[in-house]
Amino acid sequence: MKFGGTSVADAAAMTRVVDIVRSQWKSQAEGTRPPVVVVSALSKVTDGLIRTIDFARAGDAEKAAALVTELLERHIAISRTLTTHQRTEDLVKALRAQFEALAQLVATLAARKSVTPADHDEIVAMGELASSRIVCAAFQEQHLPAVWVDARDVLLTDAEHMVAAPNMDATCRQAAKILAPITARHEIPVLGGFIASTPTGEGDGRRTTTLGRGGSDYSAAIFGACLDVGEIQIWTDVDGMLTADPRVVAAPRVVPHLSFAEASELAYFGAKVLHPATILPAVSKNIPVRILNSRQPSNPGTLITSESRRDRHLAALACKRDVTVIDITSTRMFMAHGFLLRLFEVFERFKTAVDVVTTSEVSVSVTVDDTRKLDEIVAALRVFADVTCESKMAIVSVVGDRLHDDPSVFAQAVVAINGIPLRLVSQASSRRTFTFVLRDAEVPNAMARLHNALFSS
Ligand code: ADP
Ligand code: ASP
Ligand code: MG
Fold it and tell me: What's this model's pTM, rounded to 2 decimal places?
């Protein structure tokens, strides 16, 4: 069971989490194992920790320290509401020690005016370390047999800080060693999502890593796959996967069922409710994933399984905002053989993922979301091609396993957005997605029209 930032935002939200976990704990059949609970940092805490990093990088030690104190106070206030007596004392002591270490690290970095990706991970990990301690203490206060586990002892990754990739074999060995004995005793392990570490004894010793923003969903799926659980539950602040991003389209509906492939595609193309890698571990063990609302726990949510629905063509829309289109034109008259290889080798070298690709006789257009290395990429491409970039674009996708069984769907989609300039269009008849790249400013209009045309009945 994974609870996101808004599900543990404050004492009231955490009390709902206690009730949800208790009810699953109680309804557990004889012989089944208790849930493993994975939590995100309290809502907005990761953003706050990233701001302290920005202050440290700018050498503003005072603002960084003030923010660390503010974050500590928020955690202490929640702890005092949820626990009593000795438990509060112990919890507050642990939080103070943790934030003291954070304050020292931030002060050192502010003096140095530099923050490495490893420092970044050390700092942001504080959010999940703190929230998981509080949730665990809140469970114990309410007589649930919870055991706090440092997620960094279980989830082992490579050393690619901020976007670390799990080592599944090593992680599953740790899960068997650390988590399985706890559940075998009918106790509930509570651990932070998103955070991990490199294995002990590698390079300069164990270092804290993180899985990338929104990575707690991924952590939960990794632990679930290692322990071969019956179901991976993602508890969040909406009723499930909706037919469109509710921040963009008014009144989207819940999608009751999705296939693994549809859910992956939607997550990849911007449906923030699921981290894009979440489905991978679930597929490996064929474990159903359920998205549920922690404010409305009795709602059915969205169930994601290996099965594909035969009764509908469309699953949902997704949008990925603020991407950059790069147009790359061969400086020869036509695309010489080897051009594509050279072109993609540049993206590979700068570890930048490409989302949408279209080609014509002499040019290739791609979209990228991560522009940290854009200048270097453009310079490397200009060695053999003319290159232009356009920022503030967006990818709008229509997703459904059976999309292509009804050829009129594509026509309906194109008619719905008639008049909106389309920068790129991509669709393959065997695939489950149509993709339109257009100006970011057009997203609300395009999404509303597509949703109205494709999902209104
Ligand atoms: P959590 O903190 O629980 O991980 P997130 O903020 O990461 O929650 O994800 C939930 C949010 O994802 C929702 O509040 C919603 O705004 C956004 N979202 C975007 N697209 C979708 C979609 N298709 N269905 C549901 N939610 C979506
Ligand atoms: N706390 C992390 C983030 O905000 C991970 C997560 O919430 O899934 O990105
Ligand atoms: Mg999330």
Answer: 0.96
